[in-house]
Amino acid sequence: MGFKRRAKRVWKFIWEDDSVWSWVVNIVLAFVLIKFVVYPGLGFALGTSHPVVAVISESMEHNEPFDDWWSNGGQWYRDHGISKEEFSQFILRNGFNKGDIIVLRGAKDAEVGDIIVFQSGRPDPIIHRVVKMGATGNGKVYQTKGDNRRTNQQQIRNALLDETNIPENEVIGKALFKVPFLGYIKIWAVELLGALKTVAG
Fold first, then answer.
1. What is the pLDDT of residue 196?
2. What is the tens place of the pLDDT at every residue in 15-38?
3. Residue 187 and residue 99: Cα distance in Å, rounded?
4. Binning pLDDT at 50, 70 and 90, where does residue 43 land?
5. Of 116, 126, 134, nearest to 173 (Cα)?
6. Helical packing angle, 20-33 and 3-15, nearest 10°
7. Which end of the chain is more exposed for a tag (fewer CB within 10 A), N or C?
8. Alpha helix locations (H) across 92-182?
9. pTM of the predicted model, to two decimals?
10. Mean pLDDT over residues 113-135, rounded?
11. 8 Å CB contact between 39 and 195
């Protein structure tokens, strides 16, 4: 059988056959393409090693309209020089939820109000909002905070995470936009396969 004929048969099997094996091959091909072509290509274009992350915690959830959220938790920001008017101009000012997908780009120009993903002592990277910036001889340092008052207070009490001095070389990327709830697919896949990257907070 010639190469052309063999290639036609393979093509037909992948794209036209309705058998179980054809479906299995399609799923494997999709996984390989996404993991080794689409994901790295997107990362190259956006300037980050992790262009798409799934959120696995509630630490950035507001759970109430912006004005109510600010009334109940805005004092901390006011005490640290961030007004309601300033916060209302920040990206994703209403936070985001567990299970959302966040698209990232390189974070070289991250500023106060941006949402960054950074490495920590925990297994998963963290995604929180920049609330303060500084500089050292080695470059920028960031202070971050989760928008969710309840989970953020728990983290402070339990001393789970030091967010006061994050060097820029630990920052993976900054948020561009969110895709609601699509991250649950990735979260479930991680739980099943333990193979894809997620972010916590």
1. 46
2. 777 788 888 888 888 878 877 887
3. 7
4. confident
5. 116
6. 90
7. N
8. 149-158
9. 0.77
10. 90
11. no
> pLDDT tens, 159-179?
456 788 899 999 999 999 999
Helix or strand run (H / E) with residue 70:
helix 66-73
CA–CA distance, 118 with 187 (Å, rounded to integer) = 19
DSSP H helical segments within the chain, as ranges? 3-15, 20-33, 39-46, 66-73, 75-79, 84-88, 149-158, 183-193
Task: Set out the domains of the chain in order of their start, with CATH numbers.
Answer: 1-46 (no CATH), 51-199 (2.10.109.10)
**In the prediction, which pLDDT does 83 show?**
96
Asked if pLDDT for residue 194 goes beyond 70, the answer is: no
Whole-angstrom Cα distance, residue 43 to residue 162?
Answer: 28
The answer to whether residues 94 and 62 touch, using CB atoms and an 8 Å cutoff, is yes
Long-range CB contact pairs, 64-70, < 8 A, 24+: 66/93, 66/94, 69/94, 69/147
Polymer length in residues for the chain:
201
DSSP H helix total and E strand total for the chain: 8, 8
| 116 vs 14: which has the higher pLDDT | 116
